[in-house]
Design brief:
Blueprint: H1 4-13, E1 17-23, H2 29-41, E2 48-54, H3 59-72, E3 76-79, H4 88-96, E4 101-104, E5 118-121, H5 124-141, E6 147-153, H6 159-171, E7 178-185, H7 190-203, E8 209-212, H8 215-227, E9 237-242, H9 245-252, E10 258-261, H10 267-278, E11 286-288, E12 293-294, H11 299-303
Parallel strand pairs: 1-2, 1-3, 3-4, 4-5, 5-11, 6-7, 6-8, 8-9, 9-10
Antiparallel strand pairs: 10-12
Helix pairs in contact: 2-10, 3-4, 5-6, 7-8
The structure holds beta-D-fucofuranose (GYE).
InterPro entries: Peripla_BP_I, SBP_2_dom
Family: Belongs to the bacterial solute-binding protein 2 family.
Pfam family, one: Peripla_BP_4
Length: about 300
């Protein structure tokens, strides 16, 4: 497949790749697993020297971090972007400095395709569509035609939120009596998820379904529902995204009805892309990872191998 000569040369030189990684934050279990995977794969033992920056869920911190990476003169920049937009200026600066940018997990929207070398992550819209379709089937099984749905959205403007919101609406579009009666951001955190769910429960007495756009918000919603005297998973159907181990346990014990998997283990994928870019090899511009759905019917088979 070509490029082998250069790779060997790089190995012989034993030249490490310096890489700056701007991470969203530490808002969720998913994110913590993602950070661990990135740090492990981009380690010295693997031929990397990593500068890691936690943006604490603020894009302005990411802009600063990227500028810092540029002034350090790193070989590659990796970004897990908080939001999709607002990147144009700083990405142009990286391009002018000749530093390739890999985006991972969430995506960036730019007018100029060449500002990002490649992206690897999940198909968030597909996850949302699958969740909607699953709900239609589940309600059919229960003999219910109508459903009042409350959505706990992730960080507004992040591609995970945008995709899951759009996809879910698309997934339920044929179910005329499914109504999204409430929708608000819980910022992908457990605390905010709980707070928003509490306020939903005060405002609406008739919530049949909660769609939490990540597991930590689902955990918060479960606590809020219990405090309000409701049985999560029974009185109210709970749908969630990520499928971290603690959430799979909730599927086992019936408090979450369906989990739409989102894979956080991107470290080795980014390491591979960075090495290829440095060797002048071709990389795939867009790479979606495979994921699955977990319910009580199949969760037992998978829970033990879950590392995060
Ligand atoms: O679902 C959530 C995290 O962007 C896919 O961000 C990621 C999302 C994930 O905080 O738990």
């Amino acid at each position: 497949c070509g490029g082998g000569g250069k790779k060997d040369a790089a190995k012989k030189d034993n030249k490490e790749i310096t890489i700056g990684f701007s991470q969203v934050g530490a808002e969720s279990d998913w994110r913590v697993a993602n950070t661990k995977s990135m740090k492990e794969a981009l380690s010295a033992g693997n031929g990397f020297k990593l500068s890691f920056a936690d943006a604490q869920q603020k894009q302005e911190n990411q802009t600063k971090a990227v500028r810092e990476f540029i002034s350090q003169g790193v070989d590659v920049i990796a970004i897990a972007p908080v939001t999709e937009t607002g990147w144009e200026t700083v990405l142009k600066e990286a391009k002018e400095a000749g530093i390739p940018v890999i985006t991972v997990d969430r995506q960036i929207k730019t007018s100029d395709d060449s500002l990002v070398s490649c992206w690897v992550g999940s198909d968030f819209k597909k996850e949302g569509v699958e969740a909607g379709k699953w709900l239609i089937k589940d309600m059919e099984k229960k003999g219910k035609k109508a459903a009042n749905i409350a959505v706990l959205q992730g960080t507004i403007g992040s591609s995970a939120e945008i995709g899951r919101t759009k996809g879910f609406k698309e997934g339920i579009k044929d179910a005329k009596d499914f109504k999204i009666i409430a929708s608000q951001t819980g910022e992908f955190t457990q605390a905010k998820g709980q707070e928003v769910m509490e306020s939903f429960l005060k405002q609406y007495k008739n919530i049949d379904v909660v769609v939490a756009q990540n597991d930590n918000m689902a955990f918060g919603a479960i606590d809020a529902l219990k405090a309000a005297g409701k049985k999560p998973g029974k009185d109210v159907t709970i749908i969630s995204f990520d499928a971290v181990k603690a959430a799979l346990k909730e599927v086992q014990n019936g408090q979450i009805n369906a989990e739409f998997e989102c894979n956080p283990l991107h470290g080795p994928r980014v390491a591979d892309l960075a090495k290829k870019l440095m060797n002048g090899e071709k990389v795939e511009k867009v790479q979606y990872v495979e994921e699955q759905v977990f319910t009580k019917d199949n969760v037992d088979k998978f829970i033990n191998e879950r590392q995060y």
